[in-house]
Design goal:
It comes from Brevibacillus borstelensis AK1. By secondary structure, the chain is of the alpha/beta class. It has a 5-stranded parallel β-sheet. A 4-stranded mixed β-sheet has the order 1-10-9-8. A 4-stranded antiparallel β-sheet has the order 14-15-13-16. A hairpin with a 7-residue loop joins strand 14 and strand 15. Helix 1 packs parallel to helix 10, helix 3 packs across helix 4 and helix 6 crosses helix 7. The longest helix has 25 residues. The chain starts with a strand and ends in a 5-residue tail after the last helix. The mean pLDDT is 95. Bound molecules: flavin-adenine dinucleotide.
Length: 421
């Protein structure tokens, strides 16, 4: 007989958005399961070495914290583990970030999820949805033992790829209106770098240009960031190996992973030859998975626009704040394009941008919420994903408990949970 589990709320995907959603739902009193195909939570942070939380703070001076609630719980857990060094400005762009260590982040998220009473389920992939009358009644999952079913009253799609929205017949779009995607990047972690080596972006650019002139094959992007890992670790992370990839398709992903690894070894060679302090450098790790910025977005009840973001617009049904500048990665090898939010302030994200059109009991969170391309380039970051996740989880839990979730009750529950609105 097929295995069957029953919960009030089921959250698909355990990245920043999914952790926010599951803890938010559990704190609303819902019996909640958090499902991820990976062996740990964290999504891009732990599985693609995206080791900086952006979006927790505005970019002004001093930076203002704009994400609390579950996001603050995570920062508290990181701090207890001795790994939260507070907000920090990057050398190249002056943006405000929180540096992470991958293993500490895994443990902090395990603690955050289990202390909230969420049922964690790793190594399970969601592959189907049972629907009737425009609602999901259950989702199908697979592990090595076979297929199983999870029933719930309400669901959150925090898969990053809009899997559940798509599987349940919700409206989704791929990339921007023309199907163009922000480029993907394979992170590379490099060890053996001298403690006093400072790889300023301009030095990195010179090293890559020299490498290209000397015929090192596989180098693409010239301007990129190299950051030192926090917590006394001397390894550095290089964010340079861009790829154009359809993150939904295994064939396209395979080509990108292989090509990204070729690039990683080429960059290592260029750094060893031309960057002072990198002479004995070695490759500690790539990925593990190439970082996918964009695939599907949901079609919600409101499309957050670039104008909303850049004008720091407030919304009546605000359930989260975004403060990361618009950061576009137009295509592999091309520099990022930045646009500042008015007064380096923040904008509101409305609950309507999280509600999946056509599926009554499904909310979306994180990088798949309904945004135009400019708004997406800001709202996708992980600090903001904790906040949209918490709101989606609260909305789903209230919907399960009351049969509806209006924005006033979602906002008051979020405020009770110490979210910043
Ligand atoms: C190269 C790169 C650099 C970036 N730099 C930064 C940065 O410095 N700071 C920052 O804050 N943001 C950064 N971002 C953006 C940020 O990482 C993402 O937008 C963010 O992780 C979105 O969070 P999420 O929870 O929506 O999705 P994800 O982090 O992608 O998590 C989705 C989770 O869902 C799981 N999942 C997916 N489908 C299924 C399924 N069917 N069944 C079960 N599990 C499933 C996945 O395994 C994954 O764990 C970067 C992104 C990339 C790619």
């Amino acid at each position: 007989m097929q295995r069957k589990l029953t919960f009030d709320v089921a959250v698909v995907g355990g990245g920043a958005a999914g952790v926010g959603a599951a803890v938010g739902a559990a704190q609303t009193g819902a019996r909640t399961i958090l499902i991820d195909r990976n062996p740990y939570f964290g999504g891009a942070a732990t599985h693609s070495s995206v080791l900086t939380y952006c979006g927790f703070f505005t970019q002004g001076e001093p930076p203002e914290q704009i994400v609390g609630g579950v996001g603050q719980n995570v920062l508290n857990h990181l701090a207890r583990l001795g790994m939260y060094e507070g907000p920090r400005r990057t050398a190249r762009t002056g943006t405000v970030i929180v540096l992470l260590d991958p293993e500490v982040t895994k443990l902090a998220l395990d603690r955050c999820v289990t202390e909230a009473g969420v049922e964690p389920l790793l190594h399970a992939q969601v592959i189907g949805a049972e629907t009737s009358g425009g609602r999901i009644s259950a989702i199908q999952c697979v592990d090595h033992a076979g297929m199983f079913t999870i029933e719930a009253s309400a669901f959150v799609d925090a898969s990053g790829e809009g899997d559940l929205a798509s599987l349940s017949g919700g409206e989704v779009i791929f990339g921007n209106a023309e199907g163009h995607l922000q480029s993907a990047t394979l992170m590379i972690r490099i060890g053996g770098v001298a403690a006093d080596a400072h790889a300023h972006p301009l030095q990195v650019e010179q090293a890559v240009l020299k490498g290209k002139a000397d015929g090192i094959e596989g180098l693409t992007k010239e301007l990129g960031t190299i950051v030192r890992m926090p917590g006394g670790n001397q390894d550095v992370l290089a964010i340079l190996c861009d790829e154009e990839v359809n993150g939904l398709e295994a064939g396209s992903m395979t080509k990108a992973e292989l090509s990204g690894r070729r690039q990683a070894w080429a960059y290592l060679e260029a750094f060893k030859r031309y960057l002072p302090g990198f002479e004995s450098a070695y490759l500690v790790q790539t990925g593990p998975q190439i970082g996918i910025r964009e695939t599907r977005h949901i079609v919600g009840e409101y499309t957050l626009t670039g104008d909303d973001v850049l004008q720091a617009r407030r919304q009546a049904d605000a359930i989260a704040r975004g403060g990361w500048p618009v950061e576009l990665h137009p295509e592999p090898g091309k520099p990022n394009v930045w646009h500042e939010i008015k007064d380096k302030s923040f904008y509101d994200i409305p609950l309507r941008s999280l509600k999946v059109k056509g599926v009554g009991n499904l909310w979306a969170a994180g990088r798949i919420i309904d945004c135009d391309p400019l708004a997406f380039a800001s709202a996708r970051v992980m600090g903001t994903a904790f906040a949209t996740g918490q709101a989606a989880g609260v909305a789903a839990a209230l919907h399960g408990q009351q049969g509806a979730s209006d924005y006033q009750s979602v906002r008051s529950e979020l405020l009770r949970q110490e979210a910043i609105l």
